[in-house]
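User: Hello! My lab partner asked me to get a predicted holo structure for this protein. The small molecule is flavin-adenine dinucleotide, SMILES included with the sequence. Please write out the structure tokens.
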Amino acid sequence: MEQDQLTESGETGVDVVIAGGGIMGCSAAFWLSRLSDRRLRICVVEQDPSHKQSSTALSVASIRQQFSKSINVKISRFGIEFIRNIQNQIGKLPGGNDLALRENGYLLLAGTNAGAQRLRQAHAMQQSLGAQTMLLEQNALKDRFPWLQVQDIALASFGQKDEGWFDNMGLLQMFRQAARQNGVAFLHDEIIGVRGSKGQVHDVKLAQNGALSVGTLINATGTNARTMLQYLGEEIPVEPRKRTVFQIDAPNAHFPDAPLMVCHTGFYLRPEGRHWLCATVPEDDCAADPHDFEPALHEFEDRIWPRLYARAPAFDAVKVLSAWAGHYAYNTLDQNAIVGRHPNWQNLYLMNGFSGHGLQQAPAVGRGIAELILFNRFVTLDLADLSVDRILEGRAFKEGHII
Ligand SMILES: Cc1cc2nc3c(=O)[nH]c(=O)nc-3n(C[C@H](O)[C@H](O)[C@H](O)COP(=O)(O)OP(=O)(O)OC[C@H]3O[C@@H](n4cnc5c(N)ncnc54)[C@H](O)[C@@H]3O)c2cc1C
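Assistant: Hello! Below are the structure tokens for the protein in complex with flavin-adenine dinucleotide.
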């Protein structure tokens, strides 16, 4: 069922409407169509198929095992296996299945005893789940990464396997292509209203194509998740937070095997081909204007470069080649994903609030939401810790390792 078939045939209803065709919407579409053996009529509604402002397209596209909550480690373990075996997982696609995974690892640095203690606790939990994280004291850190200044480091945590980065848009295309092959329709339109009563969502109102009645609605609208829920009189603590990413050239820094380094002084850095990507958290981090995608260029000079040079003197000569700004869909309660059925609506499911780590979570969360809809329970991974109920009850389930 292609978009044209859907609109020209005058279809006014489908079994499942997925609002938003970013990585979450497309993963859900893929898994739902596969696990239901194509029995469901599924439609993904996306307002901008070019994805120029979606988090998926503007992501730094990295995957790690180093989280503080065990559910996030499990989700990423599922994610790395999925990405590594993409061809077996998704089937051979016409454009090929290479996601250009580079497993250089993540390196998390701590500068205080309290920070070191947090790394130790997380390390024990990560290892118990099969992650190959290792702790590095100052000397071991210097041996492994001689280009780093380590005098002020209390402890480092390094993921020597199953961590790195991959092709974000490649993964999106593969989910979309496979879902299409399974009969999912993709509609280019904007949802401008959602109607429901007595705990049942009835239809979504479209800017171009009238109304589409829904059996089930999935909210996968990224930074727009709150507006979607407000149509039904509901609230969710998710807001856009702007992050500027810089691509830099550093001719004296030749470390192609460098990991994605998260420095406690306030920036992260990873190789990107012959160059580097880096970013920081803005000093006045707060809700962004949803239309503001202007890179905050001052952040490089003011916040990143002094800290980067202090950590790695080879970054003495640096040129900013380009910069872009994207938005995190930031969960202000606990910076963790919000996944599951909405307790006030029988046929409304959320995949929201990924707070900067959603790309790597898409394979597992898409599968989880599909299982919940089809089998009324999580089968592969129990995602109950990420429930909508905790949000409505104000019960924070805080992820400590937010980058
Ligand atoms: C700078 C940056 C770096 C990041 N780095 C990483 C990383 O290294 N690793 C990682 O795992 N994650 C990372 N993330 C986070 C990750 O990119 C996101 O969590 C993930 O892409 C979220 O996917 P999504 O599908 O929920 O949202 P999106 O990709 O934003 O997709 C939502 C879609 O919904 C559509 N939509 C919204 N409203 C409507 C409407 N009313 N009608 C129709 N369509 C609508 C939008 O157009 C959009 O395409 C990063 C994010 C940013 C911004």
